[in-house]
Amino acid sequence: MFFEMFFLGTKEVRGMADRIYMDNAATTPIKKEVLDAMMPYLTEEYGNASSIYAQGRSAKSALDKARETAATAIGAKANEIYFTSCGSEADNWAIKGAAMGWKDKGRHIISSAIEHHAVLHTLEYLEKNGFEVTYLPVDEFGMIRLDDLKKAIREDTILITIMFANNEIGTIEPIGEIAKIAKENKILFHTDAVQAVGHVKIDVKELGVDMLSISAHKIYGPKGVGALYVRNGIKLDNFMHGGAQERARRAGTENVAGIVGFAKALKLATDDIEENIEKLTTLRDMLIDGISERIPFCRLNGHRTQRLCNNVNFSFEFIEGESLLLMLDMKGVSASSGSACTSGSLDPSHVLLSIGLKHEIAHGSLRLSIGDFTTKEEIEYVLDVLGPIVQRLRDMSPLYEEIERGIRNV
Length: 410
Known about the structure:
alpha/beta
């Protein structure tokens, strides 16, 4: 079946140079300015920031400047920024650290059904170790209901962890309102902002969050580095043990080059954020409107307006998402599916099931996430090739044949 779809009416795979990249939610390329900032610390400025001699002091100075830059970008203080290896580590530290640090007060945590697996699997671990978790449902757009949150709060609730914006469907949650509810009930609040940073204007003080996770490679920085914002005064158990790095709270020799690159990427992502949001929103809406108008039997997943400026997620009836990805790849388009089929699982995305999609529709999902280098011409090309690919796949579907013959109603 796959070989038939691969070679029936498809072009040869485009070369890497002229491919169209539409999976920026998965990772982004390093910007030249970021790489330039990193290079000295990969070559001549190779010192260990914990050393007291000249090379070490130079590395420590770079680390301090990067921390100040990162803090300024999100409205924090420099001593509230802790560098990690990635967003997943930041999530793990925030959740496990809060759980261990506050377990004497209670063992109940509130989260949502559509969190990233870095959060869900961490919570599952805690559930196996004596903690109880309430997973809030979401509406058809992926939004939690604040009334559900209020009702879920108990005397022993110690932490609320709700993602800022969903990585699959792009829905932006009411983070400010959640933070207010948490504060009124003296509960810690953590948000995974990995997808939101650079696409939503964020000021941690205005929002009132206690902890916030960031990852560099989602904002044109290097892989292998992230950060956790921890508001001053928050009791948080250490996640990494060993040396005295990160003010004795996160052991391990600092990735100075990566941290410098991360800070530069974060500054670039936030300096002109309003202009960038406007540009990406225009391209996003062009893609959403084009797909809606050209392809029947499709559904936009996520909130239409309260969504990330770079996220487009559709479900197409009567097709499989994996087949769609393979045929797009043959046309030179890199994208991802809303289902988990590409990771070897037969189960569809937990996010899509949580917003009420049936299994067969969730399996036919496609996420297109645009980026700073996406052009209008690339959007037009994707719109030109996507419709015929969907039609070709539907032509192979007996269910779609029944629709065309008028035997089955949609």
